[in-house]
Amino acid sequence: MAFREKGILFILSGPSGVGKGTVCRALRKRGTSLKYSISVTTREPRKGEIDGVHYFFKSREEFKGMVQNNKLLEWAEYVGNFYGTPIDYVRETLDSGQDVILEIEVQGALQVKKRFDEGIFIFLAPPSLQELKKRITGRGTETASLIENRLTMAKSEIELMQHYDYVVENDEVQAACDRIEAIVTGEHCKVSRLIEKYKRFSEVD
Ligand SMILES: Nc1ncnc2c1ncn2[C@@H]1O[C@H](COP(=O)(O)OP(=O)(O)OP(=O)(O)O)[C@@H](O)[C@H]1O
Ligand SMILES: Nc1nc2c(ncn2[C@@H]2O[C@H](COP(=O)(O)O)[C@@H](O)[C@H]2O)c(=O)[nH]1
């Protein structure tokens, strides 16, 4: 009996404003073979954000209901709003043999690590804190006080990069994409991923 290999779960995480969304959009444009999970959030949509495309926008009650019904792989409260990853999409897509990427903050990534250690955890790092501030301010989507809160979070998030499998610096978007593509295509192989792969060899008749 032949086995169908499950997809691989990639977790791209890092401080707000480092460029996770930008890098994911650039990877999509390249046609990198990944499926992109759409998160649920209680945050208000920004100008131009579309429900079901950028996020599933939910009320706090709806979000709580999803938590209670175990509909989320992970969730976190981040600077006053809730964010979470719908579990069904991730499970079904991995089961179908396709790779999935989550673009999430650090508390959520560490929850996924506890439940799903075979995932590949990538920390996207800024070239400097000054550059991070420039990027998040330049995006123009947050008030000055929210930017300060996000930068305070960033300092503690950066200290947690040791828990990841890879740290990729986002100095330049295409260079960061090259590094992530090398991880996704398996040019850099995490040991636990290889162990999983070779374990499955013994399942084949
Ligand atoms: N390598 C880069 N060089 C210069 N600017 C960048 C780079 N990557 C992203 N940016 C810019 O930084 C800003 C923040 O990027 P982006 O919104 O992708 O960050 P993010 O990590 O997804 O943020 P959040 O977690 O808050 O959603 C954007 O204005 C984007 O154009
Ligand atoms: N733990 C989770 N974090 C998530 C999820 N979706 C997005 N995020 C992260 O939240 C912050 C803020 O996002 P923003 O859109 O308000 O700028 C950022 O770091 C996102 O990556 C999720 O499902 N779970």
Automatic annotation (TrEMBL):
Keyword ATP-binding set for record: yes
Protein residues bound to ATP: 14-21
Protein name (Swiss-Prot/TrEMBL): Guanylate kinase
EC top class, as a word: transferase
GO MF, one annotated term: ATP binding
Enzyme Commission (EC) number: 2.7.4.8
Location of the Guanylate kinase-like domain: 7-185
Family stated for the protein in its record: Belongs to the guanylate kinase family.
Localization per record: Cytoplasm
Catalytic activity: GMP + ATP = GDP + ADP
Organism the protein comes from: Terrilactibacillus tamarindi
